């Protein structure tokens, strides 16, 4: 599996950090995770810079939650693919997010575009949290499985992380994407993101604020990751951070943590 980070910042990070999102490469198809307000422009700029035609190959988008830094340019991407490229886009999200995302898309795209199965935008949502979805890829490249897991975040706002793996892949080649989340906890079972389990992901892309922890926080903080054992730290890529890359690199010196930067590519 190949993962390209498009952006690594949050809502208030400097523009050059982008908004935290990633492309998952599966053969000719691309899966986009989150589409914050800066992401569509980032995609167009990257395509112009290196000549790759990412936007036309993004046939699926997975959304963690509905904050603007995660969904703010989804409408532009869907419109562009539909009207300019003539292509539909499949959308995945967790079950509790589905009605909210449908309302959002109805408002943003209009009913004429939204909700005509088989013709226009195709919204796929899990029947239940934890349902495994298969994102089909052109043969012979194996498909990618996508499993939403609800994570703890701001009260009343459903927020999901995702576990992703190739159909024929091994556990160590799987990836966990946290979404915006308090440190290391799923809603359904309190499982600590698989940090300690045999089936843990090979790489974990984790929400990390570099600000000191404060009582009402809805994010995980650097001090919490620093307390993890080294063999877990070395599998963690910090994303959704404050966006000051040079300063953050100094702040994680002496740890095994990795800092996510825009444009970084990982292969598992
Ligand atoms: Zn965010």
Q: Mind explaining what this structure looks like?
A:
The protein is an alpha/beta fold and 268 residues long. It has one domain (2-267): Ribonuclease Z/Hydroxyacylglutathione hydrolase-like (Metallo-beta-lactamase, Chain A, 4-Layer Sandwich). The chain is 22% helix and 23% strand. It has 8 helices and 14 strands. It has helices spanning 39-50, 54-57, 68-71, 74-84, 98-109, 222-226, 230-233, 245-251, and strands spanning 2-7, 21-26, 29-33, 58-62, 90-92, 122-123, 133-135, 144-150, 160-166, 175-177, 203-207, 236-239, 258-259, 265-267. The strands form 2 sheets. It has a 7-stranded mixed beta sheet with strand order 6-5-4-3-2-1-14. It is globular and about 50 Å long. The N and C termini lie close together (5 Å). Residues 112-122, 124-131 and 136-141 have low confidence and may be disordered. The site of zinc ion (ZN) has 7 residues, from helix 3.
């Amino acid at each position: 599996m190949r993962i390209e980070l498009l952006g690594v910042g949050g809502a208030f990070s400097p523009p050059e950090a982008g908004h935290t999102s990633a492309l998952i490469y599966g053969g000719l198809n691309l899966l986009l995770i989150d589409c914050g307000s800066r992401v569509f422009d980032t995609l167009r700029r990257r395509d112009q810079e290196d000549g790759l035609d990412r936007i036309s190959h993004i046939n699926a988008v997975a959304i963690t939650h509905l904050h603007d830094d995660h969904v703010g340019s989804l409408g532009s991407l869907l419109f562009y693919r539909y009207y300019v490229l003539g292509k539909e886009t499949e959308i995945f999200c967790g079950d509790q997010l589905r009605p909210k995302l449908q309302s959002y898309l109805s408002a943003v795209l209009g009913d004429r575009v939204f909700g005509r199965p088989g013709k226009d935008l195709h919204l796929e949502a899990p029947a239940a949290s934890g349902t495994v979805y298969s994102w089909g890829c052109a043969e012979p490249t194996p498909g990618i499985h996508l499993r939403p897991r609800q994570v703890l975040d701001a009260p009343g706002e459903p927020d999901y992380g995702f576990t992703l793996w190739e159909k024929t892949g091994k556990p160590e080649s799987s990836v966990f994407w946290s979404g915006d989340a308090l440190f290391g906890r799923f809603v359904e079972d309190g499982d600590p993101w698989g940090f300690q389990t045999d089936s843990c992901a090979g790489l974990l892309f984790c929400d990390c604020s570099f600000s000191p922890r404060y009582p009402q926080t809805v994010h995980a903080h650097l001090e919490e990751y620093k307390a993890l054992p080294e063999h877990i730290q070395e599998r963690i890529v910090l994303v959704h951070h404050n966006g000051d890359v040079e300063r953050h690199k100094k702040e994680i010196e002496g740890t095994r943590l990795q800092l996510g930067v825009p444009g970084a590519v990982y292969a598992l």
